[in-house]
Each structure stands twice: as C-alpha cells, then as structure tokens.
C-alpha cells in the first residue's frame, strides 16, 4: 500500500470534477476525500471461485486502470500522481449457509459492512474486494472504491475487466484486453476542449436555461446525531413499476423522466413552487471514455416549469424537454456556475440541496457467464442504514426501476434531518407516484 508521503510531486492536473470536489475538501479526514466517501457494488457469483486466481485478476485490474493507483494532492493548487501498482486487498469471509438462511439479505448486509469500513483516499490502490462464500458454488463479490477515484459506472467497468482477467488467468493465460484509455487522457481532452465551439454552445444553453434558477433545497432540522449519512430504503408493488414503464413508452420518455415529473409534482405540493430546479447526477462520459475508470459524474440541474400544466401527462412532457436539453448539453458544474453564479445561492446553513437520480449502471450483469462463473448484479437493496457512504450535506433520492418493482433509497445527512420526517416523505412520494401514473390525464 502506498501513501501520500511515498509519492512524488503532482504529475497531472485535476479534472473539473475533481476541482469541484476539492472546493469542499476537508483534508483526508472528512468530506469528499475522507475515508467514508466510497462507492460499492456487489454481484452473486455462481460457480467455484479460485481465490488465488481472483487475487491475480484484481492485481491485473489495478495495473490496467491508473485511476485506481492515483493519489490526489489537495495542497498547492492540487494535482495528482500515478504510482506503481500493488495488489489490492481481498478479504474472504464465510457466510451462513444453513437451510433457513436468507442469502439475499446476508449478501446485502455484506455490502453494507464493506461500504461503511473506512477507506483512506491517500492510500492506494483505491480498490478493495470482499468475497463472501455461502458454499463452494454460491458466493458474493463486493467491489469497493473510493468515490473520488471511481464512480458507479467505473465499478461496472472494473467488474467486467475483472471477470475477463479471471477467466484468462484460470485458463493459465495472460489477459489480452484492449489497451485502456486512462483518466489522465480525459483530463487532457477536457483541457484541450475547454474553448471548443461545442463547449461554448453548451455554456450558452446553460446561461439561458438557468437564468434566475435556484437549486432545490430542503430546510434542515438539526438533530443530536453526529455528522454522517444515513439511508432509508423502500420498494413499490409491481403495478407501479409497470405503469411507470407504460407511461414512459407512451410519452416517448424514459422511466427516469416519469419519476422526475412525479417528483416535481411532489415538490410543488409541498412547497407550492412552480419553477423547480432539481439537481441530478449524469455520467459525464463521451463514447471514447465509456471503458475508462475515474470520477466522471456531473452534477446537472434539471429545470422543470409547471406553469400551464393541467395533467401529469403535461408535466411528463415538460420534464422530457428539460431532460433532453440538459443531457445533450452536459458539462461539469464548474462551467455551469461560471454562467449561472447564483444557482447555488438557495443553499446555506438552514437549507441544503435535494437531488434526484436514477441508478442504472452500464453492463449491469444479470446472469452473464465468464468461463466457469456466472455473475448477477445485486441492485435490490432494502435494508435501512444508520451509517453509509458519505454524501454532501443534503438529501439524495435514488430510484431503480427493476423488472418487477421500483426500488428506491433516500440518503440524508442524519445530523440535519429527523429519520421520521424522511420516512414520512418517502411514503408520501410513493403514494403520489401510484396516483399519478394510474391516471396521468387527471387534473393535478
């Protein structure tokens, strides 16, 4: 393991995304470079996993992706250094395999345990793995990375590469993956294109779109809890998921757009606001960087105006227009703030940002086979967490539309919100979604 004291001076600049995180840095003890700002994902693995081969494959992945062995420097203007690869940690644990054991729940508990362990951002590699074994043919693989080095998309890239490296190593061969595009290549491209016509056009779009806009905030109610992030989780019945999908298809929208439209109505009913700017997270990746590991995600404001909307179908149409415009002009937030410097002025000590996102990673393996192993992503999470991966002070609604149900989570700063209030909001929102999609042409 390498620490900041072992590294040389910065050899590369920070991306705009990293520069934004650095604005809120609190050293390596808290904040976006602190030990609880992590990204974790897990898969059920069918087949006999060879631990020795898995360790080799994990080392291959760290060697392949420089972001996993990069130390960010927070002082003197910032920068980052790429260090030589060392094998990441692999912890192997035995899981309850008794006949009455709830394996799905135990798998989720293992994810929580992995996610909440401290993960210093100044110790590389910034990837670790836990293999939980129910028996020789049924395992859970959890991958965890520091969020400053890898986003949820990156974790899927890592797993895909890991599976291919494992298959090659198990066959006694060297992995033969195509050369990876590195995060430093993205930083260079970002710098070179900063003054391009495409960026200029997108900045003009945001300058016009965000004129007078303020991001959505929630009033805080300070609690006696220590600063940390908690998670409330919920599901809906299958009917709601089916009706969301049906309405999305009928309106040439995505399920996310339908859910965001419902959230806009929800916000209107709680605040009476008709001009609502909801931040979300977008991937931030061009096609050439889709297989690159790094912190790409952008904080993107979606401005939905409800004036003149008579029905929920009207709101969906308005939301679709807002999303298409925003997604086709996606830029890092620092560019947006240069065009709309008052955007964040609604946030402060007494009111913190509220975000809404749909979690639909790429390469979401559902029974995908690599060699002798089959991988199935664990995306259904239902266990509440008093302590989870850190998010900035505020509240984040996360939705995942599965094949049979809608699964959601609400992460919140537990020192700023009472859990009972959060649970009440979630129940109110779920009831409203069901009402709106059941009769989208009813007056709102």
Written account of the structure:
The N and C termini lie far apart (about 55 Å). Strand 3 and strand 4 form a beta hairpin. The relative contact order is 0.17. Helix 7 crosses helix 8 and helix 8 packs across helix 9. The chain is globular. The longest helix has 20 residues. It has two domains: about 180 residues, Chloramphenicol acetyltransferase-like domain (Chloramphenicol Acetyltransferase); about 220 residues, Nonribosomal peptide synthetase, condensation domain (Chloramphenicol Acetyltransferase), CATH 3.30.559. The chain has a six-stranded mixed β-sheet, sandwiched between helices. It is of the alpha+beta class and about 450 residues long.
Average pLDDT figure: 94
Query: Helix share of residues?
Result: 25-40%
The CATH superfamily of the largest domain turns out to be Nonribosomal peptide synthetase, condensation domain
Largest sheet: 6 strands, mixed
What is the strand arrangement across the widest sheet? 5-7-8-2-15-14
- CATH architecture designation of the largest domain: 2-Layer Sandwich
**Tally of DSSP helical segments:** 11
Order of helices and strands: EHEHEEEHEEEHHHEEHHEEHHEEEEEH
Distance between the termini: 57 Å
Basic shape = globular
CATH topology of the largest domain: Chloramphenicol Acetyltransferase
The portion of residues forming beta strands comes to 15-25%
- Kindly provide the name of the CATH class of the largest domain: Alpha Beta
Provide the low-confidence segments as ranges.
none
